[in-house]
Amino acid sequence: MSDAFDDVVSYFKKEYGKSCMVEKEERRVTTAVSGQLQPYVIVCSVVHDIFRLGVLGELKIPKNKMVQACVLANMINAISFSFFYIASIASESEELIVETTCVVKGCKLSREAIGLTLGTACGEADRFYPAFQKLIWGDVSPEEAFDSIKIKTEE
Question: Torsion over CA of 23, 122, 102 and 29, rounded to 10 degrees?
Fold first, then answer.
C-alpha cells in the first residue's frame, strides 16, 4: 500500500517531470513553479503522517525589518480565509514562506487535492508577497502594508 508521500512524488513527477527533485530519505519533493507575480520554489514533504507544502518566493527579510515583518505576518494570518495557509519567516534563511500543514495518517492524497493545495498556496503567496515587498522596499509600516492587501468579503 502506498502512503501519502508516494502520492506526492507521483503528482510532482507527472506534473513537473525532471525539474522536480525527490529526496526520499527526507521524504521531500522540491520544484519551481511560476506564480502570477514571480517564480516560487515549492517544498512539499510528508513526515510522520504530516503533509507540509511551502511556497518560497525570492524575498529575504532584512534583519532591521524582521520585527515589522513578523507583525505583518501575524496580521495576515489573523484574516487569512484560506484553508490553514499561514505566512511565516524561516529563521535560518530569513525568507518569507506561505505554507500549509495537515495530518494525512492513513490517507491517500488525490492528484486533485495536491493540485488544489499547490494552486491555493501559490495564490496566497501572490496575494500576500506584495505587502511584504511594500514593507521592505517602500519603507511603510506593517499597518500600511496590510491595508494594501485586497481582502474579499462576502456581502
Answer: -10
